[in-house]
Design goal:
By secondary structure, the protein is α/β, with parallel strands linked by helices. It has a single domain, classed as Alpha-Beta Barrel (TIM Barrel), CATH 3.20.20.100. It is 41% helix and 13% strand. The chain has helices spanning 29-42, 56-65, 86-100, 117-129, 143-151, 171-179, 201-210, 214-224, 236-243, 252-259, 274-287; strands at residues 6-8, 14-16, 20-21, 46-48, 74-79, 107-110, 136-139, 159-163, 183-187, 228-229. The strands form 2 sheets. It has an 8-stranded parallel beta sheet, with helices on one face. Helix 3 (86-100) links the parallel strand 5 (74-79) and strand 6. The chain is globular. The chain starts with 5 loop residues before the first strand and ends in a 5-residue tail after the last helix. InterPro entries: AKR, Aldo/ket_reductase_CS, NAD(P)_OxRdtase_dom_sf, NADP_OxRdtase_dom. This is 2,5-diketo-D-gluconic acid reductase. Residues 28-261 form the NADP-dependent oxidoreductase domain.
Length: 292
């Protein structure tokens, strides 16, 4: 069906290097369900969602309706901060399993490095031991919090999903991840269109050389660096385009030109800024009633 390479995680589990990001902003149940069905139909075998996306039920319905066997789908969800703490996290995973209509999850991540993420991670470790989760990890953990968690946990995270794109290539973070055999997974590989991403002249110029688009070049750059990607789109044609990156390879000159685009700064938020912590605390307070 597709030629997406598999990545071997630090516990031996195999994960597709490219998957479908199922965050459909303001999407209805039917829109999310159809997007996932379309993604599976064109060849995606990894679906990424999160509790805070409020779309697990729609994804579960899509998986149930799809003719793709569940064992051939790599399913990821993320625990939201409002569900952190040992027992709350375990309870929330049970709810996610029910919504997704499955009895196991391939990967579960802690969504943000705030709140009682130690208690939450211990819950993931125990659920991993019980076989309900095949791999565990984190998201948005910068080097300091990541190393701290590694040093005071039983199981090294298999994945750290972080903002990663041509403008913020996460080289410093990736250096630490490689030291502990954690794979970097990119969210926002298109920078969500910021910095005029889709009109970037460097990417377009390089793409013309290979008969590819600028966005395809950006995805290929990440994957050639060993990064896992989860581009998102609700348009079937674009879903197909995002998969058409495995039949070419950027040469070293092109790779270096894209490396030079790195600003080493987030286009969204700084996790070290107290204002960011306050922002997520507010979102968490507002989200609590939705997890009862």
């Amino acid at each position: 069906m597709n030629n997406i390479p598999m990545i071997k995680l630090n516990n031996g589990v195999q994960m597709p290097q490219e998957g479908f990001g199922a965050l459909v902003r303001d999407g209805s149940f039917e829109q999310v369900k159809q997007a996932v069905l379309d993604a599976l139909s064109v060849g995606y075998r990894m679906i990424d969602t999160a509790q805070i996306y409020y779309n697990e039920e729609a994804i579960g319905a899509a998986l149930k309706e799809s003719n793709v066997d569940r064992k051939n789908i790599f399913l990821t969800t993320k625990v939201w901060i409002a569900n952190y703490g040992y027992q709350a996290t375990k309870d929330s995973i049970e709810t996610s399993l029910e919504k997704l209509q499955t009895d196991y999850l391939d990967l579960v991540l802690l969504h943000q490095p705030f709140g009682d993420y130690y208690g939450a991670y211990r819950a993931l470790e125990d659920l991993y031991d019980e076989g309900k989760i095949r791999a565990i990890g984190v998201a948005n953990f910068m080097p300091d919090r990541y190393v701290d968690l590694v040093k005071f946990s039983r199981i090294v995270p298999a994945i750290n999903q972080s903002e990663t794109h041509v403008f913020n290539q996460q080289n410093e973070l990736n250096k630490y991840l490689k030291e502990y055999a954690t794979h970097l997974e990119s969210w926002g590989p298109f920078a969500e269109g910021r910095n005029d991403f889709f009109k970037n002249e460097t990417l377009i110029k390089i793409g013309a050389k290979y008969g590819k688009t600028g966005p395809q070049v950006a995805l290929r750059f990440l994957t050639q660096n060993g990064i896992i990607i989860i581009p998102k789109s609700v348009h079937k044609d674009r879903m197909k385009q995002n998969l058409m990156i495995w039949d070419f390879k950027l040469d070293e000159d092109d790779m270096q030109e894209i490396r030079n685009m790195d600003t080493e700064k987030s286009l969204f938020f700084n996790h070290h800024d107290p204002a960011t912590v306050l922002r997520f605390a507010k979102i968490t307070e507002e989200s609590k009633p939705n997890f009862k």
